[in-house]
Design goal:
Number of strands: 11
Largest sheet: 7 strands, mixed
Distance between the termini: 42 Å
Helix content: 55-70%
Order of helices and strands: HHHEEHHHHEEEEEEEEEHHHHHHHHHHHH
Bound molecules: flavin-adenine dinucleotide
């Protein structure tokens, strides 16, 4: 059975003990974000997720969205849940107070989003898209468009979409065929077909604001010729009320593997009125504001579902009785022992747990840096934090979603054959988690982003934002005996990562296929070291707090840290060997030999 309780203790540990989120109150605009406020927000958020969103997860999957003559209906209960969500101000939490937001740190929003993704990933897509659309409009649109659209998006009365994909164009956006023609009134007429558009049509909000990539008549070819347009479903009047229906219609929804309650739409734009955002032909740059935010959000989907899968698997492993402990019966009075006694079941549970808790620490660190990048009064600190976020965005997106999918599969495995049966809900986690590895740029594309763009950016400056603190941490704790079991594997992983970075940078310059051949292994190596760094930092705190005893939370944290270092970090060795093998074994076979 799917079970979920927000892991508030672990969230608090990461926020307050590890990252000292209390420091946020010193940043201008965040004066209210005291630890007490953070705590009470998270407690309220947990109630909404556990009591409103989670109960709709199975039924939403079973029922799915429905389509009839251009109208899309979300599953029963979703409208009320969305109402509770927006009335609770959850969409407004980190939004700009100028437009009606609460202006709280993104970090708090991140923690809440993790809970949403654990409870009901499909539901979470609706606010995720709205948040991204709001951010894009705030950064790139004119003052008039901002004041017309942003407040209503923040209120949740209107919702947002991102419209990139077309039948012939997925990863390669240079192939876009949707056209935008200027009119005398200064707006544009947008015509074309977009597919796979999440939340493209639904019954949760009064209006839907589409952010659409299209080409102007004089556009240069390829990605340099893409412009961005805001196309509302209903064109608002000057007083903000809904005007006439615009020329955009939903042509159908996809039948798909998972996230059945998230509407995936075909949208037909037929001379729809649109407003240009940003400069002509510069649309992709603007869209990246939304895509980067969404990539982190999709990373959280991986973490969220990983946590839910773990909790469900633990509950089952304590309940299901099969066989006896290898050391002799653990519960002789019972007919059999619970399967949690078996080392192999523990291997699976601990893999889920160590990846979840490590990813949580890394993900929240990235969110903290998002806040610093936006609010710190010192420009150098802002730049440093922004570099870190940019570097980590593909890592969070790809690694967290790979881990989420792995955790969901492990949950099925722990349930045995029952995991394969629909009733238990584990197969839903497998189906729902799978999409996160694909959308917002496939994980292969994230790896190329890391290797091809982030690695060499500003002469390696982004990379140094990571290497310097990790190296300093390793140096500082080298002689500390109690930390040795954490520092030694971290130091080895870091060495491999440093060597791999130099090798790829060198080989990639001479032959880009070498960089492409190493990319996915490199991203995973990077992620394992980054998460290892977070585990070493958490172990340090746990050691200090635990004082060598067994105080429950901290003692358990140390055990999980040990598992990560001893059983997951060693994969950095095989990844290093794989990527050092170079491109030859991938590229020497001709296409006709496959
Ligand atoms: C449920 C769902 C919701 C979605 N929501 C949205 C949405 O809201 N808005 C939107 O615009 N889109 C959306 N998408 C589309 C999604 O972002 C794309 O499917 C995704 O980016 C991949 O594009 P594609 O499917 O065309 O695959 P392709 O681009 O055809 O890629 C196929 C394979 O080739 C690989 N590949 C392609 N190019 C390269 C390259 N240069 N180097 C290495 N490998 C490469 C890919 O990694 C992949 O493995 C959604 C898709 C789904 C299924």
């Amino acid at each position: 059975m799917q079970v979920y309780k927000a892991p508030l203790n672990d969230m608090r540990f990461v926020l307050l003990d590890l990252l000292d989120a209390g420091q946020l109150v010193k940043l201008p605009g965040f004066e209210e974000a005291t630890p007490d406020t953070i705590n009470s927000i998270l407690e309220e958020g947990a109630k909404l997720c556990e009591n409103v969103l989670h109960p709709l997860n199975r039924s939403g999957d079973e029922h799915g969205c429905t389509y009839e003559n251009g109208v899309v209906r979300t599953p029963p209960g979703f409208k009320d849940a969305y109402k509770a969500f927006v009335e609770g101000g959850w969409l407004a939490m980190s939004a700009n107070p100028k437009h009606g937001g609460q202006g709280l740190p993104e970090l708090i929003n991140f923690v809440f989003e993790e809970m949403v993704c654990s409870s009901n990933l499909a539901f979470g897509n609706y606010p995720l898209l709205s948040k991204g659309a709001t951010a894009l409009i705030e950064v790139h649109a004119t003052t008039e468009l901002k004041s017309r659209y942003v407040p209503r998006l923040i209120e949740g009365r209107w919702s947002g979409t991102m419209c990139l994909t077309e039948p012939q164009c997925g990863t390669d956006l240079g192939l876009i065929r949707t056209r935008a023609v200027p009119t005398d009134s200064g707006t544009y007429r947008v015509t074309g077909t977009k597919i796979f558009i999440t939340a493209g049509e639904h019954d949760l909000s009064e209006n839907i604001i589409h952010l659409v990539l299209a080409k102007l008549p004089d556009a240069p070819s390829g990605t340099r010729g893409i412009s961005l347009f805001l196309v509302p479903k209903f064109t608002p009047r000057a007083d903000g009320s809904l005007g006439p229906r615009n020329g955009v219609m939903c042509g159908g929804i996809e039948k798909k593997m998972g996230i059945h309650a998230s509407a995936t739409c075909v949208l037909n734009f037929d001379d729809a009125e649109g407003w240009l955002i940003g400069e002509p032909h510069q649309g992709l740059k603007c869209m990246f504001t939304m895509m980067n935010a969404a990539r982190l959000g999709v990373g959280l989907q991986g973490l969220g579902i990983g946590e839910a899968a773990y909790q469900s698997a633990v509950a089952y492993a304590k309940d299901r009785r099969q066989g006896r402990s290898l050391k002799g019966a653990a519960e002789p009075a019972a007919t059999a022992d619970p399967i949690i006694v078996h080392p192999d079941v523990r291997r699976m549970l601990l893999t889920q747990r160590a990846l979840n808790e490590g990813a949580r620490a890394l993900g929240y660190l990235v969110a903290l840096n998002l806040d610093i990048a936006r609010k710190h009064p010192d420009a150098a600190k802002r730049e440093e934090a922004d570099d870190f976020v940019q570097l980590m965005t593909p890592v969070v997106k790809a690694f967290f979603t790979d881990c989420g999918s792995l955790a969901a599969n492990l949950a099925v495995q722990i349930h045995g054959g029952h995991g394969y049966i629909r009733e238990h809900g584990m197969e839903q986690y497998v189906r729902d988690s799978r999409i996160a590895q694909l959308y917002e740029g496939t994980n292969g594309i994230q790896a190329l982003d890391l290797v091809g763009r982030k690695l060499g950016q500003h002469n390696g400056r982004l990379l140094r934002r990571f290497f310097h603190p990790v190296t300093a941490f390793v140096e500082e704790h080298k002689g500390d005996e109690r930390m040795a079991e954490f520092i030694e594997p971290l130091a080895k992983g870091l060495d491999r990562l440093r060597n791999a970075s130099l090798t790829i940078a060198g080989r990639g310059l001479a032959d880009p296929e070498e960089a492409g051949a190493a990319a996915t292994d490199y991203l995973k190596l990077f992620a394992l070291v980054a998460v290892g760094y977070m585990w070493a930092r958490m172990a340090k705190i746990a050691l200090a707090e635990n004082g060598g005893g067994d105080d429950g939370f901290h003692a358990t944290k140390l055990k999980t840290a040990r598992f990560y270092m001893a059983r997951l970090m060693p994969e950095t060795s095989s990844l290093f060997a794989q990527l050092m093998a170079g491109k030859r074994t991938l590229m020497e076979m001709g296409a006709d030999e496959f």
